[in-house]
Design goal:
Layout lengths: L3 H15 L5 H12 L6 H9 L3 H4 L1
Helix pairs in contact: 1-2, 2-3
Amino acid sequence: MTIIQEDILEEFYSKLTKAEGFDKLRVDQLRALFRGKKKPKAPDVIKALSEDTKESQT
């Protein structure tokens, strides 16, 4: 049985994949950050949200 936070995150990831400026790589980075038992550190989340991916640099 999933917990509500997991359901919310899955919906969040689903919407991000459809959002302009977010590709699968960036969503996967965020997914990895939130996967653990510990809360992700703010600088890591900011980096994942703001870092240009290789595809967007070409």
